Amino acid sequence: MAAPKYVDMESQDNKAKEDQPFTHKKISRRLLLGGAATTAIVAMQSSLGKWIQVSAQQPLLKIDDPTKRIGPGPSVAGKRSPFEHPVRIKSDTSSRTPLQDLYSSLTPSDLHYERHHAGVPLIDPEKHELLIHGMVDNPMVFKLTDLKRFPSVTRTCFLECSGNFRSGKETMNPQEICGLTSQSEWTGLMLSTLFREAGVQPKATWFLAEGSDAAVMTRSIPVKKGFDDAMIVYAQNGEAIRPEQGYPMRLLLPGWEGNTCIKWLRRLELSDAPFMTREETSKYTYPVKDRIRQFSFEMDARSIITYPAYPNQLERGWVEIRGIAWSGRGKVVQVEVSTDAGKTWNAARLQEPVLDKAHTYFRYLWQWKGDETEIMSRAIDETNYTQPTLQQLIDARGSQINGYHMNPITAWQIKRDGRVLFKYIN
Amino acid sequence: MPKRFNIGNTFLAIALGLCVIVILGAYNNKLATVNVSGFGADTTQWPTSFGFGKPATQQQIMAWDIDVRSDGLGLPPGSGTVVQGRVIYNTKCMACHGSLEKALPPDAKLPAPVLVSDSTSKVKAIGNYWPYASTVFDYIRRAMPYNLPGSLTDNEVYSVTAYLLNANKIIKADAMLDAKSLPQIVMPAQQLFINDDRHGGPEVR
User: Fold this and answer.
1) Residue ranges, chain B, pLDDT below 50
2) How far is B172 from chain A (nearest CA, A)?
3) ipTM of the complex as predicted
4) Contact A184/A107 with Cβ under 8 angstroms?
5) B2 touches chain A (CB under 8 A)
6) Architecture of the A86-290 domain
7) What residues does each domain of chain A span?
8) What pLDDT, in 10s, does the model give residues A194-219?
């Protein structure tokens, strides 16, 4: 994820499409009819005034009229309309949420972004155990069923990979630029509940969280975050957490970079120093001038307009500009939109409720008169941080900037013919 | 019938009113008590322990506690050398990470990250970017080789670590690594690392 440059998304796009059961082209009349015959039985009144059934030829029926045909009955699990096919774009190690296909701040579970380092493990929850040890009075082992007995909590927040900015060409959509962010409603227990049960000792200042995947992923986390708002979650959007998101349980650190929210969690070790694992030293760190910044946990405030965006074709007249804004440091207090390439800014409407450390949907009504311009948004959070420009980030960190913790203002060029193109900066 | 002042009903009303006040009072007291514990939504106090889960056995802790801290805490017994590491690397690592002895063509694309660098390299690898030698050991032991993670013995991990550190010109070719010597290695990049200094607010950092 280090390279901020665009890398061959086309081939990945095609791959993603191959996985889909439906595309527009494949929808046939046969599918819509459920394989119905070309003739049908209809009721008709005979000359004697008696209702009889006759075989009618096709033209009598409007076969694509849903009011003239009984649809399929209930099913054990629902599916999307065959006309809708939002898909993730996948690479070998990650997949991206189709932000432009979503209508609100929540991400359907099967479209949540993925980033894993050695594939998705298959874990039997009956066999899975969570060990907590190290600087605790009572080293303990918990099964999933044990964790579910503790007082539970539900929280909606975003989860974002800290390597979530790509650039490099005009024909990139929101998903390709920053699709490594998603939002779910998570349910589990507060980590503080478990800390209390195990008796975390006062000298413990860090803890190691370890996953049960083939990377045995590990990150060191300050104990303070563990007592603050960290959770161990086993449910996502009302059902068991998805395998790609850490089934049967994961760590959730609201507002912090996704990599710290260890999936397939199997071990917590309390310690008085960080462990300096690979993912917190050689990865997930970045140059700042002549130094390397480490333990960069919070995701700074950010926003992106998801409509209109590439590849939309804009029509003159009223346009509702829509997008998402979020901050790992608290609530988004304002989103400002510019429709004149950043010269003037106006407040967008925020969809209530605005949640802490959560995607916040925004809308801004605009009348496009056909002039060439640029539209963009910037988020302001409750710490009074304003989403910076790419140039501001470069000024602050130096030109050796890499792909981590990049949250620049993202602009779309509106061409006279209504084309919308990503404004990338080399 | 003349209207009469019904003293009984008045008493009843006052008594009922008092009851309501007493009940409300008790309710408020209860809320206040619960709030002190910090769990306002709950109806009872939390126990000291819920008693869920079971105590961890020393055996399970030892089987899973594979991490190695930067000060060397967690390093297992055993040792390894550069010479031994070279053999293991060429058998089990080279297919993905490439040979460390022959220069790669400039346009070469390896399936896995480059592992050797120095202060003049553009690429970030062990020699110019990894702040602790312990991380090399810890990572190889837990996650490598990619197709057979966790399959190397502790001696093999010490040896591959030694070979990689030597290829990055950090230790000598005749060096031997063990739990005592490994934490004493000072990596060139260690001095570059600083803790996050962003803290929200108007300043862009």
Assistant:
1) 1-8, 10-14, 16-37
2) 23
3) 0.84
4) yes
5) no
6) Alpha-Beta Complex (3.90)
7) 86-290, 302-423
8) 999 999 999 999 999 999 999 999 99
